[in-house]
Design goal:
Length: 101
Amino acid sequence: MVARIYRPAKTAMQSGKAKTDRWVLEYEPEKPREVEPLMGYTSSRDMRSQIRLFFDTREDAVEYATRNGIAYRVFEPHETERRKISYSDNFRFDRSQPWTH
């Protein structure tokens, strides 16, 4: 069973970077999820899908996986360039383009 080591992206509901500095080790699904026909619940017989381990650095997660004999794949995060624009810049008098609706 192969584990994934990655740093999660921020959720769509958060504007800050909370909980994005930790690295996560979780197992890839071994069996597909099943839909229970009577109630419509989604279930899985894969117990390892419930395990999520958090680490401060990528090296700590890799060391844990190698020490315990876990096959792993590391996914590097995609860093985006952050623009530093404040709200008041929308109304500056020396804008390159005039502000209109």
